[in-house]
From TrEMBL:
GO cellular component: cytoplasm
EC number: 6.4.1.1
GO biological process, one term: gluconeogenesis
Name of protein: Pyruvate carboxylase
Organism: Arcobacter nitrofigilis (strain ATCC 33309 / DSM 7299 / CCUG 15893 / LMG 7604 / NCTC 12251 / CI) (Campylobacter nitrofigilis)
């Protein structure tokens, strides 16, 4: 009897890169490996979408549409090229209007996509209906998704087999058009038995002719067992990655899975071990200069307590490196359990995993529930759809107070359609103002990436990749060195400690003075007294980050607690408030400037 053919999607160049490098891999560095994968017989790739769309514009000075076109040229017209979409969020962290959701499908169809895997992190089927219509409208295959995870220990109410059956039945009853079904566990926390029971349940519901597949990560150490359970229950496809971006926070390795099914009645994509070995050798050479975060290669027994997706973990730890807060990582992971439970059990996958992370980060840095991360707050208030269970009532009330929004049960698409900033017209006019070509691609880039998209289109976006040596970094002038421990002759703002006292040191090129100022003593336990210098009362940066917006002008009168600037850190907007009543005498920073925690950004007289 012939072995059952199992379709293998190679996630190396999308989820693999996202899970290990936070998506920050330059296309010309990895394209030789794409050629090698093709030669190895792989013809189903995840090649874009998800967080790998925005990351190219944010960090790599690359156009995602151009990358997709070149990828298609390498693999040829017959390969199944797949992208990841987040339902009404598409490839954005916020909900899109109907115009933008339609434009997403149109542009991805134009630029080489065969299949779009489409999920909603809340498993709110209403959020899948319109995006599915758009995907099919432009001739693409639609892979509809049920998102999975295990709840932290002691938590109940969702994410068991009956919950997934209810979700799948809603999909079937809604009439959402689909070509295949994927069960997606971005955190890798589902148990093998639950996977077996879920796939078997789905097979009974949809019959033998529907393609069913499982996607998971090795983050919690059970991915191979889960894939074997899925295959035994009747799954038709699984997702794998190639070393060195396999295992750990990513998908299991192709070779590892081939070894795991030896002696079983499964043919993994017709792949041959020797050819895959050659492909992985080429990929390893392509990525040899990239800094491999140690957490990307680890399996963590703590992840089921969070649960933190592998695809988001390294993106967040890289940002923590940039902000100098990586030492807080264990505390943030620990804080996520409460955030997940009180947030209504949306699946820990983008964008909800990012909301969980941001709220846990805020709880650690500023004190429990002292601030509400905007995404998390809008989620519990209903602006992203219906959560699996009702969020904590106190958290909902706090979010309403902090964000000045009322809870809603309205369709998020209707809310977005009324938002002028989510219309094609708005972004077309914005491009005209900046003298940028108003192509549909550029409109979508600007809408999906906001001001960072505009910066990219104007040629002003940064290059932010991490390499292993200074010599390599000199080739990519703005890249960062590994753990970024070498200061060299760098200019900029630094924090140093002398006899237990923190100081900000501003270093400039040439013969400019080196400025040293004491850092305001900020803690999460108490509010520090205002620091007064000879010039007036200092307004310190709340956390390390970038100055996103200066909300006041020199000479403006402000009241204590009034916002004078907004920082961007960990994809959050963080208010900087006036510590006293007074008048703004000066600003010591400019918009987009990087600042350290406690750095003086303004003086109030």
């Amino acid at each position: 009897m012939s072995k059952k053919y199992i379709d293998i999607m190679d996630t190396t160049f999308r989820d693999g890169f996202q899970s290990v490098f936070g998506g920050r891999v330059l296309m010309n560095d990895f394209f030789p490996a794409v050629e090698a994968a093709k030669e190895a017989g792989i013809n189903h790739f995840e090649f874009g979408g998800g967080a790998r769309f925005q990351s190219l514009f944010f960090y790599l000075q690359e156009n995602a549409f151009e990358m997709m076109d070149k990828f298609r040229e390498i693999v040829g017209p017959d390969a199944n090229l797949q992208t990841l979409a987040r339902g009404i969020n598409t490839v954005m962290l916020d909900t899109g209007s109907r115009d933008l959701i339609d434009l997403h499908a149109k542009m991805f169809a134009k630029h080489g996509t065969t299949t779009i895997r489409n999920f909603d992190a809340l498993n709110d089927v209403q959020n899948l209906e319109y995006s599915a219509e758009c995907i099919k409208k432009y001739g693409l295959n639609h892979e509809v998704v049920v998102t999975l995870m295990d709840l932290p220990p002691g938590c109940v109410g969702a994410h068991d087999v009956p919950f997934y059956e209810k979700t799948l039945r809603k999909i079937l009853d809604s009439g959402v058009p689909y070509d295949s079904i994927c069960f997606k566990d971005a955190s890798g926390t589902s148990s093998p038995q639950k996977i077996f029971d879920t796939i078997r349940m789905a097979r009974k519901l949809v019959g033998e002719d529907t393609h069913i597949r499982l996607h998971t990560h090795e983050t919690a150490g059970v991915s191979i067992s889960c894939y074997l359970a899925a295959l035994d229950a009747g799954a038709d496809g699984i997702d794998l990655a190639a070393s060195p971006v396999s295992g750990g926070t990513s998908q299991p390795d192709i070779l590892t899975m081939m070894h795991a099914v030896k002696g079983m009645n499964y043919d993994l994509g017709g792949l041959e071990i020797e050819k895959i070995l050659k492909y992985e050798e080429v990929l390893t050479d392509c990525l040899k200069d990239y800094f491999m975060p140690p957490e990307a290669t680890q399996v963590s027994p703590l992840i089921p307590f969070s649960p933190m997706p592998g695809g988001a973990l390294t993106a967040n730890t890289q940002m923590m490196r940039d902000n100098g807060t990586l030492n807080k990582f264990p505390e943030v992971i620990k804080a996520m359990r409460e955030v997940v439970e009180k947030g209504g059990y949306g699946t820990s996958v983008t964008p909800v995993s990012q909301f969980y992370w941001q709220q846990a980060y805020a709880n650690v840095m500023f004190g429990p529930w002292k601030q509400i991360a905007p995404g998390y707050g809008k989620m519990v208030l209903g602006y992203f759809g219906k959560t699996p269970v009702e969020p904590d009532a106190e958290v909902v009330a706090l979010a309403a107070e902090k964000l000045k929004l009322e809870p809603t049960k309205e369709n998020p698409l209707d809310i977005s359609d009324r938002d002028e900033k989510k219309t094609m017209k708005y972004w077309k006019n914005r491009l005209v103002e900046e003298n940028i070509e108003t192509s549909e691609e550029n409109i979508f880039i600007a809408a999906a990436c906001d001001e960072k998209g505009i910066s990219f289109l104007k040629g002003n976006s940064p290059l932010s990749v991490r390499k292993n040596s200074l010599d390599i970094c000199e080739d990519d002038k703005d890249c960062k060195l590994g753990e970024n421990k070498v200061m060299g002759n760098s200019t900029g703002n630094y924090t140093v400690v002398v006899d237990g006292q923190k100081f900000n040191v501003t270093v400039a090129e040439g013969n400019a003075d080196i400025q040293v100022t004491p850092v305001q003593n900020t803690t999460t336990q108490a509010v520090a007294a205002p620091v007064t210098s000879a010039d007036g009362v200092e307004v310190g940066a709340t956390v390390s980050g970038n100055v996103w917006k200066i909300t006041k002008n020199v000479g403006d009168k402000v009241a204590k607690g009034e916002v004078v600037a907004i920082l961007e850190a960990m994809k959050m907007e963080i208010d900087v408030e006036a510590p006293v009543d007074g008048t703004i005498k000066s600003f010591l920073v400019t918009q987009s400037e990087a600042v350290e925690e406690g750095q003086v950004i303004a003086i109030i007289g």
